[in-house]
Recover the amino acids of this structure.
């Protein structure tokens, strides 16, 4: 846990260091509005944990983790828009478009997404990565964030796509796949990329299911709480079973984050949940 | 002119080859809706011309020109949205959000922007460029398309920023700067990048002024047609004066495109324009 606290501090300060976009001050403010609110930072932490367990550079994992966090935050800005989820509040504060207007919110998302690639393109943000490694990071992140990943999943969600697990895989798990893959690239363990992608996918689905349990939404609405809890436990056990095989002796650093995700769902469903458990 | 026709054909077919996003068919359709309408393709042509004049690889200039065209088209999708310009028609057809709905249009823009970087990240799309060269392309394009470039200019435009030339420089000229810079990177002429950026900026502003003359908008609304025409001629002459110095004996290939831009504005203002000239 102390390691996570230390990393969390590093993520907060590195995010601030890396966030130096030009242009209008208003745009900059809107781009940073969600990014610098208190968040769990689960994606950068996961990237750091994967890289750490595989012996990668902390500096490099930190930079790419921050980039993934920027991309996650751009998706939140656009997801909240009136044409999408039409949310007025996030984390108890007005949503980006409620604070800055819809046009600026759209543009802030666009600029934050673009800026994420600018950070990746600057070699000085990385220490031990070759240009080939950096191009691999850009390829992974653009694939996982784009039409075949997060954005495609959002379209499936809007369309009411029948397979919720595929929607979740694309919409949420894609970015966890990116965290695991990028952690592996930072650690120069290309032999593990297929395993890391599969593991990232499972952890991402576990994360989405936990989110649905906490919000009584998505999965829970379709399958009910009991079946959702069973699926959650099943995925959790699958993940835990392969962790040592992939990460070896330092697997508990990744496992600890997975535990945190899983335990959050247990707390909600057996703890402060008012509906009776059967 | 035959060279431009040939390039135009190559741009159309290369765009189709490069455009292979995954994800939902509806999203793919929305992403390609503007991209595959008949357009002038001035940005890819300019990139090809700059690279040609400096001895760069046609294949590589073509690929990066197509990427810039993708980015240009994502900006059109987002600019047309109800929260922005709220346009119902573009090129005589329903705008992207009128055809696919606002949510899908926002997501199609996001996915197209992301996809542009995916194309850049794949080394197999380039022949003679090193990984360092490709990272330079990504850096230039992300800087020129982002908060300090196109997106920032759009925010200035919305805010009614007082300096229209700065707004135009960011909103429109930034992507022309990217064309000139990327043409120079493809040709491995890093010694010329500063000159190319300046030239691209001027050509971009000339392009925007021509657009304003054709639409009787922007510049013309503020300064009137006569003063706008004078500014247009002034920039045109500045550009023509330095072309040979930068590009040498093949400068006319770039110059021909600049002439086309300038002449379009003349035709409108002295030709089919109904308002009297003074």
């Amino acid at each position: 846990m102390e390691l996570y606290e230390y990393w969390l501090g590093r993520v907060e300060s590195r995010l601030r260091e890396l966030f130096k976009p030009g242009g209008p001050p208003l745009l900059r403010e809107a781009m940073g509005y969600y990014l610098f609110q208190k968040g769990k930072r689960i994606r950068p932490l996961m990237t750091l944990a994967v890289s750490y367990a595989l012996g990668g550079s902390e500096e490099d994992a930190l930079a790419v983790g921050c980039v993934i966090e920027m991309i996650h935050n751009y998706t939140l800005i656009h997801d909240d828009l009136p044409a999408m989820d039409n949310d007025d509040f996030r984390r108890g504060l007005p949503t980006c478009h409620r604070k800055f207007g819809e046009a600026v919110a759209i543009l802030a998302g666009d600029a934050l997404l673009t800026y994420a690639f600018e950070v990746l393109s600057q070699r000085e943000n990385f220490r031990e990565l070759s240009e080939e490694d950096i191009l691999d990071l850009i390829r992974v992140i653009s694939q996982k964030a784009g039409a075949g990943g997060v954005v495609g999943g959002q379209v499936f969600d809007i369309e009411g796509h029948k397979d919720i697990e595929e929607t979740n895989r694309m919409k949420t798990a894609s970015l966890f796949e990116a965290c695991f893959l990028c952690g592996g690239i930072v650690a120069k363990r290309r032999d593990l990329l297929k395993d890391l992608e599969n593991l990232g996918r499972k952890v991402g689905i576990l994360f989405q299911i936990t989110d649905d349990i906490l919000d009584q939404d998505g999965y829970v609405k379709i399958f009910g709480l009991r079946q959702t809890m069973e699926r959650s436990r099943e995925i959790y056990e699958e993940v835990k079973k392969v962790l040592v095989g992939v990460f070896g002796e330092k697997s508990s650093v990744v496992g600890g984050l997975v535990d945190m995700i899983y335990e959050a769902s247990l707390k909600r469903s057996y703890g402060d949940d008012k509906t009776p458990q059967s």
Notes: Chain B is about 75% helix and 0% strand. Chain B has a mean pLDDT of 94.
